Amino acid sequence: MTSAKxxxxxxxxxxxGGGHAHVAVLADWIxxxxxxxxxxxxxxxxxxLRYSGMVPGWLxxxxxxxxxxxxxxxxxxRAGAEWVQGRCTALDPAGRSVITDSGRTFTFDWASxxxxxxxxGAALLGDDPRLIDVRPIDAFAARIAxxxxxxxxxxxxxxxxxxxxxxxxxxxxxAGAEPRPxxxxxxxxxxxxxxxxxxxxxxxxxxxxxxxxxxxxxEARFAHGRIMAGETSLEPAELVIxxxxxxxxxxxxxxGLAVSAQGFALVDAQQRSVSHxxxxxxxxxxxxxxxxxxxxxxxAVKAGPVLAANLRSVLTGAPVRAAYHPRRHSLYLVxxxxxxxxxxxxxxxxxxxxxxxxxxxxxxxxxxxxxxxxHPA
Length: 377
Ligand SMILES: Cc1cc2nc3c(=O)[nH]c(=O)nc-3n(C[C@H](O)[C@H](O)[C@H](O)COP(=O)(O)OP(=O)(O)OC[C@H]3O[C@@H](n4cnc5c(N)ncnc54)[C@H](O)[C@@H]3O)c2cc1C
Prior knowledge:
Blueprint: E1 11-16, H1 22-32, E2 38-44, E3 48-50, H2 55-59, E4 69-71, H3 72-79, E5 82-85, E6 88-92, E7 97-100, E8 105-107, E9 110-113, H4 121-125, E10 131-133, H5 137-145, E11 154-158, H6 162-172, E12 182-186, H7 198-210, E13 214-216, E14 220-223, E15 226-229, E16 232-233, E17 239-242, H8 250-254, E18 265-267, E19 279-281, E20 286-288, H9 297-316, E21 331-335, E22 341-345, E23 348-352, H10 353-374
Parallel strand pairs: 1-2, 1-9, 2-5, 9-19, 10-17, 11-12, 11-17, 12-13, 18-20
Antiparallel strand pairs: 3-4, 6-7, 7-8, 14-15, 15-16, 21-22, 22-23
Helix pairs in contact: 1-3, 1-9, 3-10
The protein binds flavin-adenine dinucleotide.
Flavin-adenine dinucleotide binds near residues 20, 167 and 296.
């Protein structure tokens, strides 16, 4: 009987971050194997990826706190890759290395970035001890869970995008909070749900008002220790949540990669850096050079299989062909925290308990797929 020789690993692919696109790369490696001679390494600060889409449902008592976790380390092991715990703090694309928060250096032949963005609440609103940023989402969930009872009775949510809207609904319907917390949603001057169709914005606005959530279409900021919406004071407030969108991690611009004006890694439709072809990027850390694409979990998830195919191509010396062409519209399902949800697809809008049931089915199905890959029965 001959025993198979362990493959000699002559080249390293480093996956920096375990976001929604990189889990698809790990899934591809589990299903089809890591290309021969390649050492795959996944670098993330935490063992798990927390699925942000289920966080509002957790706050509203619809899910357990840890139902929306993907076991990144488990996926890496099953994929035949190494999982290294650490946070990338510097990238040297020309020298093909990264440095982590513990000072370790990792070298690579190819790298792919899917670290998400960073919070920008303090930069936009100012500093205050009551301020919690939703990014990183795992730190947000940990801070909310660690708050002593009773739940804050007066909450301000800054940010009029889908994340801010869902959090406002979730906190108004916070599980176990009696009486219901008073919630104010401050959208910024871009208004409620910028980029969404008028019918969707109006349905969401009506639902916010019906639920008694105060809506302020003004900029949120701290002034002399008070939380303001434009010139209106929202005091007293016990908790201020910043859901003000992703900013680019500083190390991306500092690396010398081509970046957008906001500092996100510029990629083409193949998710490949436009300046450094041995670097790929997807999700909120990236920006498309050829078109505008909103930062959202939907696009990070859908870019995942494209990224997986293209990484396999470069590793096997094949042409990089797969491209991510987003559909004209994306389906968004906004949990309204009260047993219902609002569906948005371009100009189409619908709501009801069936929309929430559909959202739960999609979200839990996504989590279950990765749970089954990480820990097959
Ligand atoms: C409350 C809320 C609800 C949302 N709901 C939806 C929704 O329903 N639908 C939707 O489309 N979008 C939603 N979003 C937006 C969505 O969360 C993000 O667009 C999505 O998470 C981006 O995915 P990503 O792969 O870029 O990164 P992430 O999901 O942020 O994952 C990044 C990963 O990289 C790791 N990491 C971070 N920094 C480093 C580093 N320096 N080095 C190494 N690893 C690192 C992290 O620990 C994490 O594992 C929501 C956002 C919020 C805040």
